[in-house]
Amino acid sequence: MTSQDNMSEEHLPEAAGSHGGAVAVTGDSFADPGLPPHEHRRTDIDERAAARAERQVALWFVLSMLATVGFIAAYVAIKPDKVVYIFTLGHVSALNFALGMTLGVSLFAIGAGAVHWARTLMSDEEHIAERHPIEASPEVREQVFADFRQGAKESTFGRRKLIRNTMIGAMAMVPLSAVVLFRDLGPLPEKKLDNTAWAAGKRLVNMNTNEPMKASDITVGSLTFAMPEGVHESDADFQEVIAKAAVMLVRMQPDDIKDKQSADWGYQGVLVYSKICTHVGCPISLYEQQTHHVLCPCHQSTFDLSDGGRVIFGPAGHPLPQLQVSVNGEGYLEALGDFSQPVGPGFWERS
Ligand code: FES
To answer: pTM (2 decimals)?
Structure first.
């Protein structure tokens, strides 16, 4: 006999049934104490009490209807700009307050009516539906095992060892394909991100029009995407080149530029930054001209272009690299060299 059985005998016979009745003990098990006798509510035996409860329930539902009418009336009658003073809330929109109150009362009254109905008038008698045993009979279990043995025998899995062993080998090796794919995580880019297609004297070309850009064409508050001249979509390595060299140009009032080096690297308020997010390399595209913030749509890293591309929010770990620019003799914007920082993600070692 287990210690649990001992406990059963020592303590449990004294225990009361779940409803206060004595529990009969038969051997090691307990007899089902069953449900307590049903106690009639007043509304079960008194017709007048039942009628009163019915009226109370109906009253809740009528209150709900009235509140709905009040909601519609408030929506039609109260002007959106009307303000009222409500104790503890202060000055609030009269329309919002009225709509909230009437809708709240309407929903609450339906709930209250339903609960009152259930507690006073709906039957509260509990019934037991016996559940049939879910354990299979010994005959059924024996049949299942017999079928399994028969299936294994007919599959010749045990007899044909060559097939069995090669199948196990094949299944064991399949996961290796996934392991091999880990190789795609490398190799590290090492110096590859240090150099892009930008070089001293390369003009900036508008990515939409393919035209070289003049500083005078860039308006304050605008954001334009550009690439180095000499890069063409038809080039075989276009994607690889543009993935590192894409830049965005903004123009802001020189007084708005907080970072001195940033201002010096631009031209009369035109600043050029890498378009590649320093988190995991998404192209940045959303510019907020009042704050000079750009947002990466992938994970919401936000950079302040007026402050050297500094990260002000999000998972990016590095500022956006800035491209130093000036204008040539014809007024076209040109780079003064490559980026001073590797572009793109910063989760590997940067030189
Ligand atoms: S790639 Fe830009 S925030 Fe993740």
So the answer is: 0.51
